[in-house]
Design brief:
single chain; Uridine Diphospho-n-acetylenolpyruvylglucosamine Reductase, domain 2; Uridine Diphospho-n-acetylenolpyruvylglucosamine Reductase, domain 1; 3 domains; four-stranded mixed beta sheet; globular
């Protein structure tokens, strides 16, 4: 990075800017090489300002929320990584129907827990969902027959050419674990989200959340992972296909295809991204050879490979 650009960024962001920072501390899998620069934002306005700054200077950047559903390369990320800590949440309890406006750095689980205390239902499926709300909206996260597409009313984003905009849910063109943003990668950043809720009995809501959380604990392995590695092919389960290919428990280095659920790849400590990627290719090739099915990644590969 040119010294003049680096000097400008240091002046603009002050102590919110860090240099040559390992990303393993900011990803759910605890894997990832260094980012040239790291910037922390703590509000939607700070996020919008940072994005505009980098776009105007033609500095490449990547937004990281909770760090799930991403595999960061061992070589790291060139340019800037923005760590999204914009987490303001406002409930419209008296509205009909009730709703919540939340900045994109909050976790879906936090919204779920707070909604339950207010007697607001409809988002229980997100109990225990990792990552950030922005990432969930971007990838149409879901569980237990619920997904973001079913709750989203609108989102505010900033576009590189067109500034801040509000999109209704239909503009996201949602599909299974997919959106127009994930498919086309336009130059936009999600700032905040409005979600539809409903009134309910707090005890019933809490019981439902606990049931979902228990099911999650029973079926998903503990430890550092990216979440589900592959999307489920139509009519199939990716984990069962990998298991039927004889790969449950397969290890490369300290990376393992989980013995509990084969669609989760676990970091057992000091795991390299290259080892995870090797397991990805092994699973893909084995399933394709045995079943003629091509597995599609749910996780995104980030950085230099």
């Amino acid at each position: 990075m040119q010294p003049s650009i680096l000097s400008d960024l240091r002046s603009t962001f002050g102590d919110r800017l860090q240099e040559n920072v390992p990303l393993s501390g900011y990803t759910a899998a605890r894997i990832g090489g260094p980012a040239d620069l790291l910037v922390f934002v703590r509000s939607a306005d700070e996020l919008a300002h940072a994005a505009e700054k980098f776009w105007n200077m033609d500095v490449p950047f990547f937004l990281l929320g909770g760090g799930s559903n991403v595999l960061v390369s061992d070589k790291g990320v060139r340019g800037v990584v923005i760590i999204n800590r914009a987490r303001t949440v406002k409930f419209a309890v008296q509205a009909e129907p009730p709703s919540v406006n939340a900045e994109s750095g909050v976790t879906p689980n936090d919204i779920t827990q707070r909604a339950a205390r207010l007697g607001l239902a409809g988002f229980e499926w997100a109990a225990g969902v990792p990552g950030s709300l922005g990432g969930a909206v971007y990838g149409n996260a879901g569980a237990f027959d619920g997904d973001i597409a079913g709750n989203l009313i609108s989102l505010e984003l900033i576009h590189r050419q067109h500034g801040r905009q509000v999109w209704p849910v239909k503009k996201m063109e949602y599909g299974y674990r997919s959106s127009v943003l994930k498919r086309q990668h336009p130059p936009v950043i999600i700032l905040s989200v409005q979600l539809a809720l409903s009134h309910g009995d707090p005890q019933i809501i809490q019981a439902k959340m606990e049931q979902f959380s228990e099911r999650r604990r029973a079926t998903q392995p503990p430890g550092a992972s990216m979440g589900s590695m592959f999307m489920n092919p139509t009519g199939e389960k990716a984990g069962l296909l990998i298991e039927a290919s004889g790969l449950k428990g397969k290890r490369i280095g300290n990376a393992e295809i989980s013995t509990q659920h084969a669609n989760f790849f676990i970091n057992h400590g000091q795991t390299r991204a290259e080892d995870i990627k090797a397991l990805i290719e092994l699973a893909r090739n084995s399933v394709a050879e045995k079943f003629g099915i091509k597995l599609e990644l749910e996780v995104e590969l980030i950085g230099e490979w």
